[in-house]
Automatic annotation (TrEMBL):
<keyword id="KW-1003">Cell membrane</keyword>
<dbReference type="GO" id="GO:0005886">
    <property type="term" value="C:plasma membrane"/>
</dbReference>
<dbReference type="GO" id="GO:0004222">
    <property type="term" value="F:metalloendopeptidase activity"/>
</dbReference>
<comment type="similarity">
    <text>In the C-terminal section; belongs to the peptidase M41 family.</text>
</comment>
<feature type="binding site">
    <location>
        <position position="348"/>
    </location>
    <ligand>
        <name>Zn(2+)</name>
    </ligand>
</feature>
<dbReference type="GO" id="GO:0005524">
    <property type="term" value="F:ATP binding"/>
</dbReference>
<keyword id="KW-0067">ATP-binding</keyword>
<dbReference type="InterPro" id="IPR041569">
    <property type="entry name" value="AAA_lid_3"/>
</dbReference>
<protein>
    <recommendedName>
        <fullName>ATP-dependent zinc metalloprotease FtsH</fullName>
        <ecNumber>3.4.24.-</ecNumber>
    </recommendedName>
</protein>
<feature type="domain" description="AAA+ ATPase">
    <location>
        <begin position="121"/>
        <end position="257"/>
    </location>
</feature>
<dbReference type="Pfam" id="PF00004">
    <property type="entry name" value="AAA"/>
</dbReference>
<keyword id="KW-0131">Cell cycle</keyword>
<dbReference type="Pfam" id="PF17862">
    <property type="entry name" value="AAA_lid_3"/>
</dbReference>
<feature type="transmembrane region" description="Helical">
    <location>
        <begin position="32"/>
        <end position="56"/>
    </location>
</feature>
<keyword id="KW-0547">Nucleotide-binding</keyword>
<dbReference type="GO" id="GO:0005737">
    <property type="term" value="C:cytoplasm"/>
</dbReference>
<dbReference type="InterPro" id="IPR003593">
    <property type="entry name" value="AAA+_ATPase"/>
</dbReference>
């Protein structure tokens, strides 16, 4: 390419100069002939030299040269002054995990007292659990608590299509940690590079994982370097990565219990103007099963709603509306629904609430037919108590409550609608777990691995159908027996659009007093 460009630049000047120099008019200059003068030759030579210099400069920085692959991430200077420090005091509800990590921090600060007892520093700590439970927050808290160098990275930073780049980045990361020991390496979403190796996995991914395994094994005993990994999918990690000697401690970070949720609420409302009448314990009950990230979002949404309504403090209504927004989605205020469908939705939601009261499954906190997100109505439940184990009968009752809306439609209108789509999905999920995971079907004490489900699908499908049909039959009978009460609840819901748990209890108590016998 260089030779061709030079040839095209010099060729016109060479041809023109050669023609003029060999022209007879230059030497003989016959009469009437207009030849080229010596100054003209000088101009040609000068133009040629200028073109040649331009070519050399142009070629020195070609625009079409191949781009060099940048194999190392540019180190970004951390602005510690503008970055708020987070300590263990800012992490609520993870007492066991904090206790484990405080021991590691003490090891980094005072390694001699542990070595005197012959104790070795753990090489790796694996934090795993559902999303939003505080794994990354814990790692940030370590940076605030320890005086050691904290090096954060993400699993996706090591994933490249070019072979060898990921492995090189792993080597550079650990080399930096060794030079600046004592240090802590935090790798978020470690499943991006630590996934199980298979015949279908690519060479680059395997090389990156192999390098990570080698680096974890390669630490000297006197080096105070700890690796902390975080993942939502521990089942995806390679077995060689999870073994002791690489990740010595596996810490499960689950969703907080009611006491932990109270502590998390206190952390997130600490710097907010809160109405003193707010009951934190009640908020913790209403957020059963939610993660710390959900609670943080609820506190923030409540503050936004208070500002929107020009309030000077955040009250209980703001928190209630924030919880509904997080669970059910945005309220569709301008959504128009025809009266015929509104009445059907009223009976559908009343059916759910009625079955919940008959079976005493969970406390009902709210019933609404105001559309939110894709739902035309919803029933919110508050658990009676914090539960970790569920019996077979309780799972059957959960399915019956979910099918209560469809059963109410069939009893009142004589047909069913598409409104039970989400209910059917959840009911079938519970039935599937009962058959394949909990051993609660006629198949007995069986557990089906995901790889075996395809081969046994017909048997599993029959058992799921049996459970759903049995639950729906019982639900229909109970709704028919309480058809009059169902109508009363649905009619009040149709008029008011929203009922609280207390409103529902009042309707039922009034109905029972007229019947002179307790129906529920």
């Amino acid at each position: 390419m260089k030779k061709k460009s030079l040839l095209f630049i010099l060729l016109p000047s060479i041809i023109f100069g050669f023609f003029m120099l060999t022209s007879p008019g230059i030497n003989n200059k016959p009469k009437g002939y207009v030849g080229i003068s010596s100054s003209g030759i000088s101009i040609i030579i000068l133009i040629t030299i200028i073109l040649l210099i331009y070519f050399l400069k142009y070629n020195g920085s070609p625009q079409f040269a191949p781009v060099n692959l940048k194999t190392e991430k540019t180190d970004k200077k951390n602005d510690k002054a503008n970055e708020p420090k987070i300590g263990f005091k800012d992490v609520a509800g993870l007492d066991e995990a904090k206790e484990e990590l405080e021991e590691i921090i003490d090891f980094l600060k005072n390694p001699d007292k542990y070595r005197a007892m012959g104790a070795k520093i753990p090489k790796g700590i694996l934090l795993h659990g559902p999303p939003g439970t505080g794994k990354t927050l814990l790692a940030r808290a370590i940076a605030g608590e320890t005086n050691s160098k904290f090096i954060a990275a993400s699993g996706s930073e090591f994933v490249e299509k070019y072979v060898g780049v990921g492995a090189k980045r792993v080597r550079a990361l650990f080399e930096k940690a060794r030079k600046e020991a004592p240090s802590v390496i935090f790798i978020d979403e470690i499943d991006a590079i630590g996934a199980k190796r298979t015949l279908e996995s690519n060479n680059e991914k395997d090389q990156t994982l192999n390098q990570l395994l080698i680096e974890l094994d390669g630490f000297n005993n006197d080096q105070t370097v700890i690796v902390i990994g975080a993942t939502n999918r521990i089942d995806m990690l390679d077995e060689a990565l999870k073994r002791p000697g690489r990740f010595d401690r596996n810490i499960f970070i689950g969703n907080p219990d009611i006491k932990s949720r109270e502590e998390i609420f206190k952390v997130h409302i600490k710097n907010k103007p809160i109405n003193p009448k707010i009951n934190i314990s009640e908020l913790a009950k209403r957020t059963h099963g939610m993660s710390g990230a959900h609670i943080s979002n609820i506190a923030n949404e409540a503050a936004i709603l208070a500002v929107r309504n020009n309030k000077k403090s955040i009250d209980f209504d703001d928190f209630n509306n924030a919880i509904e927004k997080v669970i059910g989605g945005l309220e569709r205020k301008n959504y128009s629904i025809i009266e015929k469908e509104k009445r059907r939705v009223s009976f559908h939601e009343a059916g759910h609430a009625l079955m919940g009261k008959i079976l005493s499954s969970d406390l009902i906190s709210k019933i609404s037919i105001i559309p939110r997100s894709q739902a035309l109505g919803y029933v919110m439940y508050t658990p009676n108590e914090e539960r970790f184990l569920i019996t077979k009968e309780e799972l059957f009752n959960k399915i019956k409550v979910m099918l209560g809306g469809r059963a109410a439609e069939e009893v009142i209108f004589g047909n069913i609608s598409t409104g039970a789509k989400d209910d059917l999905k959840k009911a079938n999920e519970i039935a599937f777990q009962m058959v394949c995971e909990y051993g609660m079907s006629d198949l007995g004490n069986r557990f089906y691995e995901p790889t075996l489900i395809k081969n046994c699908y017909d048997i599993i499908d029959r058992e799921i159908n049996k459970i759903i049909d049995l639950c729906y039959k019982d639900t229909l009978e109970k709704v028919k027996l309480n058809k009059e009460l169902l109508s009363k609840v649905a009619n009040v819901l149709y008029e008011k659009e929203t009922l609280t748990g207390e409103d529902l209890n009042t309707i039922i108590e009034k109905y029972n007093s007229t019947q002179k016998v307790s129906i529920i």
